[in-house]
Each structure stands twice: as C-alpha cells, then as structure tokens.
Design a protein that fits this description.
two-stranded antiparallel sheet; alpha+beta
C-alpha cells in the first residue's frame, strides 16, 4: 500500500513559534486596557499635588504676616486701670488701618485708664485706652450705696446696667419721683464695685451722662436698684 501525505492538516506545524495557544490575545488586550486606565490616575495625582502646593503657599503667606499684638487676658471695664495681668500677647495677621497695640508697647499702656469696656480675648486698641481725663467730656460718675437684693451679685466693672428709681422702700425717706421730662431708668456702665469693711452695703460706681448723674445723686439711699442688661441695652 502507498501512504499519501496528509493534505487535510491546517497549515503550520504544531509547536511552531507563530502558533497561538488561544491565551495570548486576551492577555495582550488586558495589558493595553491597563495602560489606558493609568492615564486618569496620573492626572488625578498631578492635580492633587498642585492643590497641596497652593494650600501650602496660602498658609505660608498668612503665617508670614502675623504680628505680636496685645489682647485682654481678662475682662476690663471703663475707668479701670490696666495692669500687666490684664494683658496677653497674641500673634495675628493684622489688616492695614487697624489700630492695635504692638506687644512691645505693653509698658506704655500699663497704668492707663480704660475709656471703654472690653471682654476677655478682645484685641486692645489705642482708642480703648484713655489719654485724657476720666470721665470723658459729657460723662459723670455716680456712686450707688446698695444693699443685698438691690443689685445682681454678678455685677462687675464693665457691666452694662440700668439704674432704676424704686420709691416707697421700707424705712427710707420717700423721694418725689422725677418729673415727666425726666427718666426713672438710667442706662450706665459700672466702673467699680467695693464693699466697705464692717458695713452691710456695697458701693457701685457707674458712669453715665451728667444730667442723669445729677438726678441719681438727688435720690435718697434705698430708692435705687440696679438691673444688669446686655451691652448697650436699657
């Protein structure tokens, strides 16, 4: 018998280097897809770097403009004499035109009289420290001799209060009420609170307008009370 060559076999011999085993094309496609997906990640990373650099630049610029200035370590009231314990140093970025007091000028303001009331943490400004006499023009000081129950115990220098005319107190000479063109409630600011020894009274000094101070001075002791109000209230 004569053996004929197998003419049905597909071209290319088994095991040739050009023969695919059915797995290489999928691998090639996966590799190409991975390269395409890495491009957005690179862009996102570059954007993140730029954002971080911008934030660092802004923080650096703001930090470079900070200056040491004076602030209040505790609340102070109008008429109060500043002490070193009332002040503290803070580092802030100061805008042009703000009349803050540089920390190096602390010695020049200690011992000065406050011309306004400031709460703890407030920045000390040149306008808050009195340079002239006290009280200021148009203002006057009045002293109130009060017993327990006629004023809140929370009243301190700098508190905004209303001085109220209360006629008919037991054991006190009844004063004539103010006329119709006068007020029976006077807004004021407390400048000092003292308790004389061996006495059951508290003397509260308040700053208010000259006319109101004269009216209050004409009221006998025992016919005035103090009501604590919000800043500037009545």
């Amino acid at each position: 018998m004569t053996t004929k060559p197998d003419t049905i076999r597909p071209s290319g011999s088994t095991g040739g280097p050009w023969v695919s085993d059915g797995k290489k094309p999928p691998i090639s496609r996966l590799r190409g897809g991975g390269r395409r997906r890495s491009v957005p990640h690179l862009l996102l990373g570059a954007l993140l770097v730029l954002v971080c650099a911008a934030v660092f630049l802004v923080v650096s610029l703001n930090s470079g403009n900070r200056e040491p200035v004076l602030a209040l370590a505790q609340s102070v009231g109008v008429g109060q004499v500043l002490t070193a314990q009332d002040l503290k140093q803070v580092d802030i970025a100061v805008d042009a035109g703000v009349s803050v007091v540089d920390a190096s000028q602390a010695a020049s303001v200690v011992g000065k009289t406050m011309s306004t009331s400031l709460s703890a943490g407030s920045l000390l400004t040149l306008g808050a420290v009195g340079t002239g006499g006290f009280p200021s023009a148009g203002q006057a000081l009045a002293a109130l001799s009060l017993k327990s129950g006629q004023f809140p115990p929370e009243v301190t220098p700098g508190s905004h209060v209303s001085v109220v005319f209360v006629p008919g107190q037991s054991g006190a000479t009844v004063a004539s009420p103010p006329t119709t063109d006068q007020s029976t409630v006077w807004p004021a600011v407390v400048t000092s609170v003292t308790s004389p020894p061996n006495q059951q009274i508290t003397v509260i000094s308040v700053q208010l307008g000259e006319a109101a101070a004269r009216q209050i001075a004409a009221v006998p002791a025992g016919q005035l009370s103090v009501v604590m109000v919000s800043g500037g209230g009545r």
